[in-house]
Amino acid sequence: MQYVYARETRRVHQNNKDYIVIVMHSVLKHNIPEISGVIRVDDYHQSLALELWNNKGTKGIAVY
């Protein structure tokens, strides 16, 4: 499978907490040619939120 996607990173402050949010999604307008015999995924979306957890690690939530 082949993915053509964009990734955006944002910092969000909500409920007195800081998060790093990464959003990835398909890009439909591009100049990358398709490869014969390879399936191109054109409806891709993923989100990831990261938060400092108890000053000891990172807690993450992913949505596909």
Characterize the structure shown:
This protein is mainly beta and 64 residues long. It has one domain (2-63). It contains no helices and 6 strands. The chain has strands at residues 2-3, 5-14, 17-26, 40-41, 45-53, 57-63. It has a 4-stranded antiparallel sheet, with no helix packed on it. A hairpin with a 2-residue loop joins strand 2 (5-14) and strand 3 (17-26). The protein is elongated and about 50 Å long. The two termini are 16 Å apart. The mean pLDDT is 91.
How are the elements arranged and paired?
Elements: E1 2-3, E2 5-14, E3 17-26, E4 40-41, E5 45-53, E6 57-63
Parallel strand pairs: 1-4
Antiparallel strand pairs: 2-3, 3-5, 5-6
Instruction: Tell me the distance between the termini.
Output: 16 Å
Average pLDDT figure: 91
**Radius of gyration, whole Å:** 16 Å
Q: How many independent structural domains?
A: 1
Strand order of the largest sheet: 2-3-5-6
Strand content: over 45%
Element pattern in H and E = EEEEEE
By secondary-structure content and strand pairing, the structural class works out as mainly beta
Approximate shape: elongated
Helix content: under 10%
Major sheet description? 4 strands, antiparallel
| Spans of at least 5 consecutive residues with low confidence | none
- What is the total tally of β strands? 6
